[in-house]
Automatic annotation (TrEMBL):
Keywords, in A-Z order: Antiport, Cell membrane, Ion transport, Membrane, Transmembrane, Transmembrane helix, Transport
Domain RCK N-terminal per the UniProt entry, residue ranges: 404-498
UniProt-listed InterPro entries: Cation/H_exchanger_TM, Na+/solute_symporter_sf, NAD(P)-bd_dom_sf, RCK_N
Full protein name: Sodium/hydrogen antiporter
GO molecular function: antiporter activity
Pfam families linked to this entry: Na_H_Exchanger, TrkA_N
Record domain Cation/H+ exchanger transmembrane: where: 12-392
Keyword Translocase found: no
Membrane topology: Multi-pass membrane protein
Any one cellular-component term (Gene Ontology): plasma membrane
Location of the protein in the cell: Cell membrane
Gene Ontology biological process terms in this record: potassium ion transport; proton transmembrane transport
Amino acid sequence: MEASFEITLQMVIAVVAGISAQVLAAYLRVPSIVFLLFFGILLGSDGIGLLHPHLLGTGLEVIVALGTAIILFEGGLNLELQELNKVSTSLQLLVTLGTLITLLGGSMAAHWLGEFPWAIAFLYASLVVVTGPTVISPLLKHINVERQVATLLEGEGVLIDPVGAILAVVVLNTILNDNADPLIAISSLFMRLSIGGAIGAAGGWLMAFICKRASFLSFEVKNLVVLAGLWGLFALAQMIRSESGLMATVVAGLVFGAASVPEERLLRHFKGQLTIFCVSVLFILLAADLSIASVFALGWGSLFTVLALMFVVRPINILLCTWNSDLNWRQKLFLSWVAPRGIVSASVASLFAILLTQHGINGGDAIKALVFLTIIMTVFCQGLTAGWVARWLQITAKQATGAVIVGCNPLSILVARLLQERGEPVVMIDTDQEASQKAQAQNLQVITSSALDANVLEEAGLASMGTFLAMTKNGEVNFVLAQRAAEEFNPPRVLAVFPRDPQANNSTNKTKVNQAFLSDLQIKTWIQYLNDEQVKLGISTLKENGFSLQKVQLQALIRTGELVPLFLERDEKLQIMPAGEPWQAGDRIIYLLHDPRPNLLKRLSGASQSTRLSLEKLPEVEEVPINKLSQLSASDVPAP
């Protein structure tokens, strides 16, 4: 068999195995790295022997370098700067103080528990300070945690990767040169970070400038321009100072993502696909190159080293770095639990094993085996249980708060105002300047633009909001807007006011869009009621005793068009009422009640002329006469 075909066959096997692992992971809804590691080891020399990455020679290092550049650029591109501002102090500490804590804690564990010499122990710790985005990002998409927690984990994974890789190189150079001055090592670290950051910032700005001004280019060509640009930046930084290329790609992604380039979402999709491809191939190749015998040869001390890193060093790291943050104990506990290692640790460890062997220093294979043991244990232990832990701690995105509301009319403004008074962030969107100004007069944040533009929804922060609500006067438009929002951003709750019965429309059932409030809400009628001040704002608690009677009372008023439920408060959590939501004892229903008394009579009776409604128990709802209820049968009343 020709050598060229052998190399071709190796790459084909790696690609097929990697994509198969992704498909299987998606079907079984588990993190993909679990199957990538399993398939790689299975196909390697210690498995069935189909895959032999050493046949690629130095080509393996090239593939790893270029693939890692794409992965880190995509990670920087997806970092939300607005979200980073909310956790910036904690993130800065995780990348700086956290790196130092992991370096010292990991080296002590490796020396005292794993019985490694101090030099090799420090090298191991420098390799595992990183928590790679190749593992974190798919994991967070799978378990869908609160945005603040996700942003902190993603930011740590992306920003600490180049720092960790450069730190590892500095430690390696110190080991290879016994006379290296610590001050020289530290200055070398900062020099590499500075050079990479400067080249990345300039290159990211230049790529964004080209994509904005080069209108003659199709978006397909722009995607390739960015790909060529990031590889060019990586190579340039590596030429000027070795190991500074990773920092350049991260900063380039950050700058490019902040530049609001047209068709940016198409670029993100393209880079996301490349990242999945690169991660799949790289993990298969590196796992196949691992010797299982070398992992078992490490002994129990190495197992205890990894356990100390997971259950002692990481919690101390999170505790100190988030001490003054507004994160609650549940979020901090989840951050302490989730710190899987990824492709950068694996690739750099593989490279260092070769370099140490070439310089006649023992421990290269042991370092590689211990790093892979760390990857395997953190991925399988934390990756497979992260979803369960997030649900147990109640920090999944289903509990996310805040809303993006499309349409500035009196009813939507009232909904937004009630949410804001509960301390939830609210952003409204409308194309009508006059309507927007009315909402702004109520101290609401408004974007005067079209909600069909994904960039506008991104500017509104929909990626971190718990609810999207479309309630313009046009029901068909609302449904289309909600569908687009669900497809592009996938928020936990997508609601819209549209004139269709979701039970009778199969296409609606296949989407994530739910009708808001009622299946037949006459939004224009209720807007008119609000304009004429013919409404009252009430709240009713459904009690255990008399639950059925209260339910019939409310449903009777809903059926006659006199009441519209706005919010459901359950377990101290407020959410906009979806049509068809079954009520439970203990629920609190916030509603609007039509009050048809003329304005003149209300003013003569001393009622306030203020349009600001107050939440109260209304006797018209709580004390409906029994003789009126007797005219209604439960079968005539639709379920809410």
